[in-house]
Design a protein that fits this description.
alpha/beta; Rossmann fold; Arc Repressor Mutant, subunit A; 7-stranded parallel sheet; 6-stranded parallel sheet; 25 helices; 22 strands; 41% helix
Length: 684
């Protein structure tokens, strides 16, 4: 029998050709795994980390071992891994939300597969875990994107911490392999604390010397769209080959993709807000070269492996430099020259801060959930009592479940009395984490203005070994812009027109916050938003005029009139009513009166604010928002009998203000109510 090194080399050459050679560190990592050592591989994107665990798996299976278990965070990554494994002659399978119809067949005999790929969230599924323990003779457990285990990692996922508990219940002679491209010293030390101090680190050069980086100056959204359009059409460095454009939000992905498609470019979106089939289909078309550009959120990130991507453009700032390294690493994996262009705008920091808040679990909220769960509580009952967004409550519940502070008993959440929750300890942990996140944001802003090598700056943030002084091909290294940063007037006009016409819909709510159905005769109609993008030029004009000028301009009135005249339903409206405010009593009222005059429709001050109440944006749960409106308004019924009403407000987010007032107007005798707002706020 060949020794570990010789057999690994033999498999590599039989798969990739006689001239194939391992990259630095690959063979030593394979041998480390086969010698049953705990191993963490920290290597640059495109280095070939999956080769390590697939060749190790093949050798282990030849020696009678059971299937390898591979924890992988993304469906797109799972697909790439399956393709790689087939080349090596492995029969592997994945269990995920997209192949539910195959689960029973897979569970029938898990031991016939060479490897099983699952997401960390699968470890919380009782059916899966009961089948998991039927797998015999597991000898390799792989944690791909292992930085996600650590609270300090750029993409921390609480479910990854289930892995640590699971490993404690597996035989001690199992090899454990973690792989990542994005772990700095702080993250590595945290992984060591969780997996054991005997963790062997295989760490290599993170400098990508075929990836030319450029940071553009700060631009508005319209200017960034114009720049992208110009360069994708006319710049010979970007107008050939495939590329990825990263956006922070799903809405931005759709907007950028739609704008480019309207200008005859082959583009599709990829994010978790799409139907699963649509998202997967877009990715497949991109893989096959039938779509030239994919506009994606971080859903397309870790481990996505398409070798011939020629450019990655960031429409906005990434969450931090470590995430940025991960994302630009999608380009140039074939070793050929590729480009990474970072665009950014004034709104980016606000969006990033919002995401930081959304993903953290505040100790006071966690403590509150635990107190309600002491006697057992269902989700909707819990949510109705806590002033927090549904997303935050769910994040908190998941955090507490993963750490065994609570458990699920059918539909009830109950406190685990054997595991004490230390709020002060969690508070200190959260404060330290927030300090780290702010430090990362500060470093990201410093990166925007550095004159040193862009790639080296990022590698230093990752505490990479100092294999090279610089990449030699970024804009800073060559001493001039890799490509122009300005754009044509025609492209800007096209982008400005597009963003001005980013109108939106206000969909009617059909249920109250309690889950009870709103009677059909109290439900508002589908309405309209002048600007669906808070950070567009129109959106920012609304913001300025509301908070700074305290009056809406004729420009906004004219835009609104022209927009509403194109809506057929407006022809039937015979009354305009405004949403009242005690803080700014004249702002929306005066705007609504001007709107009514220009549309030649009667205006009536039919809704009265009886008490100031709280600002809706300070109330985070649906129940609190609904109650805040219901308790502070009354309706003047005199002039609304049989009227078809346009209900006007400046901004819309949760829709509870519109929902409650429309219900009251309809109960008071109005025939229909159409909501209209100047801009949509909120984060998606």
């Amino acid at each position: 029998m060949l020794n570990n090194k010789d057999r690994a080399i033999q498999i590599l050459k039989s798969t990739y050709g006689e001239n194939a050679e391992f990259r630095d560190g690959q063979l030593s990592a394979i041998v480390s795994v086969l010698e049953k050592k705990k191993t963490l591989v920290v290597q640059r994107t495109g280095w070939g980390k999956s080769i390590v665990y697939f060749i190790a798996t093949k050798i282990l299976r030849e020696r009678g071992s059971g299937p390898s278990i591979i924890i992988s965070p993304l469906l797109s990554l799972m697909k790439n891994q399956i393709d790689t494994a087939k080349k090596i002659g492995l029969n592997i399978v994945t269990i995920n939300s997209d192949n539910k119809n195959d689960w029973d067949r897979i569970y029938e005999d898990l031991n016939r597969y060479d490897a099983l790929i699952i997401s960390p969230e699968r470890l919380s599924n009782g059916v899966f875990m009961s089948n998991f323990y039927n797998i015999s003779n597991i000898k390799l457990f792989v944690v791909d994107e292992a930085h996600s285990i650590s609270d300090w990692g750029h993409d921390f996922r609480p479910d990854y911490q289930r892995i640590v508990k699971l490993l404690d219940n597996l035989p001690v002679d199992i090899s454990i392999l973690g792989t990542t491209a994005t772990a700095n010293n702080r993250v590595i030390n945290d992984i060591k604390n969780q997996l054991g101090e005997d963790l062997e680190i295989v760490r290599g050069n993170l400098i990508r010397d075929n990836l030319s980086i450029q940071v553009n100056p700060k631009q508005t959204r319209e200017e960034r769209l114009a720049w992208i359009l110009d360069n994708l059409q006319d710049n010979e460095k970007l107008n050939k080959g495939q590329g990825i454009i990263y956006c922070l939000t799903q809405r931005d992905c759709d907007n950028v993709a739609e704008f480019l498609n309207q200008n005859d470019l082959s583009v599709a979106s990829y994010h978790s807000g799409l139907e699963p089939n649509a998202s997967q289909r877009n990715l497949e078309l991109f893989d096959q070269g039938e779509i030239r550009i994919l506009v994606a959120t971080v859903k397309l990130g870790m481990g996505y492996d398409k070798s011939d991507i020629r450019f990655v453009i960031h429409y906005q700032l990434p969450s931090n430099l470590i995430a940025y390294y991960q994302q630009i690493g999608r380009a140039g994996r074939d070793g050929q020259l590729a480009y990474a262009i970072l665009l950014h705008g004034a709104e980016d920091e606000e969006i990033l801060t919002y995401f930081m808040e959304e993903t953290c679990s505040k100790p006071d909220l966690l403590s509150e959930i635990i107190s309600y769960a002491t006697d057992g509580i269902k989700y909707y009952d819990l949510y109705s009592r806590i002033n927090a967004k549904a997303s935050k409550v769910k994040v908190g519940l998941n955090y507490l479940l993963v750490h065994d502070y609570i458990y699920k008993d059918k539909s009830y959440y109950r406190t685990n009395l054997t595991n004490h929750f230390d709020k002060e300890k969690e508070r200190i942990k959260q404060e330290n984490l927030n300090i780290t996140r702010k430090s990362e944001l500060k470093k990201l802003k410093e990166y925007l203005t550095t004159s040193s090598c862009s790639m080296k700056f990022i590698a230093d943030e990752l505490n990479a070994p100092d294999f090279a002084e610089s990449c030699g091909i970024c804009a800073n290294c060559v001493g001039h812009k890799v490509m122009k940063t300005d754009f044509s007037l025609n492209a800007y006009k096209s982008a400005s027109k597009y963003m001005t016409n980013r109108h939106g819909k206000i969909l009617p709510r059909k249920q109250w916050s309690t889950g009870a159905r709103i009677p059909n005769n109290e439900v508002m109609q589908e309405g309209w938003v002048l600007s669906n993008d808070y950070y567009s030029e129109i959106g920012q004009l609304v913001k300025k005029e509301k908070y700074d000028d305290c009056v809406f301009s004729t420009k906004l009135v004219n835009h609104s009139v022209n927009f509403l005249k194109r809506r057929k339903a407006v022809d039937t409206i015979n009354l305009i009513v405004s949403v009242p405010s005690i803080r700014r009593p004249n702002l929306v009222t005066n705007f609504s009166v001007a709107l009514a005059n220009d549309l030649n429709i009667q205006y009536i001050n039919a809704v009265k604010k009886n008490a100031e109440g709280k600002e809706q944006k300070t109330l985070l749960s649906s129940g609190f928002q609904q109650e805040n409106i219901q308790n502070t308004i009354s309706i003047n019924k005199t002039y609304i009998q049989g009227k078809r009403i346009l209900l006007v407000d400046d901004m819309v987010d949760s829709r509870w203000t519109f929902t409650v007032i429309a219900s009251e107007l309809l109960k008071a005798g109005a025939t229909v109510v159409y909501p209209f707002a100047l801009v949509k706020t909120g984060g998606n």
